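Input (structure):
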C-alpha cells in the first residue's frame, strides 16, 4: 500500500479559482524570460511541474491569457491571475504557478531558465541554471535530482 499523497492547494488572487495538486511536483523552477517578467509584473515566474493527472481545478474557471493562446497559459477569468500553463510539446504535464500555493514556501525553485534575460539586480535563486530552457534530454536527470533535493530538504 502506498501512502496517500500530500495535497497542495492553490488559489488565484480573488479566490475564485481553487486548484488541488496531489503529491510532490516532478520539478520546480523559476523563469527569468521577459515574457514571464511581463506576465507576472515581477522579476521571474515560479512554477511547479506536475503530471496533468495530479492537478485538478476544484472551483472557478480559467481561460487563456497571454499574447499567444497556443502557449497554453491559463488565468482566472475574474481576476486574471496566471494560474497554470500546459506547455505544448512537452507531454502530459501542467506547470502550476507555485506562488499561488497556500504553502508556496515549500516550492523553492530547483531550475532557473532564461538566465540570459535575468534582470541584473536579481540574484540567482536555484541550484541549476540555463541560459534558455533546458533541453528535453536533460529532463530525466533533472527530475531525478529534484526528487533527491526535495527529500533532503525535509
Ligand atoms: Zn481570481
Ligand atoms: Zn518564462
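Output (sequence):
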Amino acid at each position: 500500500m502506498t501512502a496517500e499523497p500530500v495535497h497542495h492547494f492553490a488559489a488565484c488572487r480573488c479566490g475564485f479559482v481553487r486548484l488541488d495538486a496531489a503529491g510532490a511536483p516532478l520539478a520546480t523552477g523559476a523563469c527569468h524570460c521577459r515574457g514571464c517578467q511581463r506576465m507576472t509584473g515581477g522579476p521571474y515566474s515560479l512554477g511547479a511541474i506536475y503530471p496533468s493527472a495530479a492537478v485538478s481545478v476544484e472551483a472557478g474557471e480559467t481561460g487563456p491569457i497571454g499574447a499567444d493562446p497556443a502557449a497554453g497559459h491559463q488565468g482566472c477569468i475574474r481576476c486574471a491571475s496566471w494560474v497554470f500553463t500546459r506547455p505544448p510539446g512537452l507531454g502530459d504535464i501542467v506547470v502550476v504557478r507555485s506562488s499561488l500555493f497556500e504553502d508556496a514556501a515549500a516550492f523553492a525553485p530547483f531550475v532557473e531558465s532564461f538566465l540570459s534575460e535575468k534582470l541584473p539586480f536579481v540574484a540567482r535563486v536555484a541550484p541549476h541554471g540555463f541560459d534558455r530552457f533546458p533541453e528535453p534530454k536533460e529532463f530525466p536527470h533533472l527530475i531525478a535530482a529534484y526528487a533527491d533535493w526535495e527529500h533532503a530538504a525535509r
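Notes: The longest strand covers residues 45-51. The CA atoms of residues 36 and 89 lie 19 Å apart.
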